[in-house]
Amino acid sequence: VAGKGATPRMIEAAITIQAAWRGFVTRATHPQCAAVRREIRLRRIEKHAYMLAALATRQREEIDRMAAIQRSQRSLIDGLTHEVSALRLQTHARAAAVIQRYWRGWRA
């Protein structure tokens, strides 16, 4: 590139490309670089595993909390259902008494 017609910008670009290539080759072939890369990768994986475990714990707690809320709501609904049934029976008994009073009054 340093031949005829090469501009300073072209020379600078060639130097940058060569430096990047040399760095890549060194990192790819040097045993210490490979060991450092493996160590970094393992730390990232470990950190990610801890993060996923914490997330799973939070989600399990949320599921348990929602289940407790649903149990509470279910017991309230059951209680209300029982009250409504009792009120229906009471109303039915009162209505039957009123009907019988009128019926007997008309027959007498």
Low-confidence runs of at least 5 consecutive residues: none
Structural class: mainly alpha
User: Which H/E pattern describes the elements?
Assistant: HH
What's the pLDDT, averaged over the residues?
91
Question: Quick one: overall form?
Answer: rod-shaped
Question: What is the distance, rounded to the nearest whole angstrom, between the alpha carbons of the first and last residues?
Answer: 126 Å
- Tally the beta strands: 0
Number of helices: 2
Task: Report the β-strand fraction as a percent range.
Answer: under 5%
If you compute it from the alpha carbons, what radius of gyration comes out, rounded to the nearest whole angstrom? 41 Å
Range of helix content: over 70%
Largest sheet: none
How would you characterize the overall build of this protein?
With about 110 residues, the protein is mainly α. About 90% of the residues lie in helices and about 0% in strands. The chain has helices at about 10-30, 30-105. It is rod-shaped and about 125 Å long. It starts with 7 loop residues before the first helix and ends with a helix.
